[in-house]
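User: Hello, beginner here. Can you help me understand these amino acid letters and fold codes? It all follows right here:
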Amino acid sequence: MTEEEARGWLGERFHVSRETWKRLEGYVAILLDEMERQNLIAESTRPHIWARHIVDSAQLIPLASAAEEGPWIDLGSGAGLPGIVAAILTDRPVQMVESRRKRIDFLNAVISDLGLGRASVFGGRVETVPPTQAAIISARAYAPLPRLLESAIHLSDEKTIWVLPKGRNAQNELEVATRTWQGVFHVERSVTDADSAIIVAQTVQSRRKARG
């Protein structure tokens, strides 16, 4: 996917308003500027930021279109991918979870600069976020699937939709995870990379709990 195709996909899929384009472009500019101070995205992806990061994040939104009302929780948000993109393109409250101080400061600055009033940052480890019932949970490059589920299961209920980009290892990670976790899992192909995939899950619970 070229940068022109990426912007075209966003415009067609989300019917992006002028104000939303302004926020997306503002976010890209802030992200590239911050790259001079901290390594938020791989340097090799800088020329392809709209396809590799913005669309790669935005494609998770339609995969969770059946989610009920409630917050979107993004684990290990880092540069705000997909959390900031979700906050720009949806009306949901978005809580980004990040433990690194410089990245927490960056995310809070983006929220302030772009006027994302429904977005917030929890500064700490995922395991320490107070229990809640998220409508959607996302995580991009956060942890292998079994550890990801273990750390965040207290943020979900049976209706939570998990949207988890897993690159080329999606099927392998899913096979490992389903030894100890059960639920309705399926794998979706990424629109930005035919070799990459996204795990979508619901009614996730530990097999130990189910047996108990």
Summary: The two ends are 47 Å apart (CA to CA). Residues 3-211 form a domain with the Rossmann fold fold (CATH 3.40.50.150).
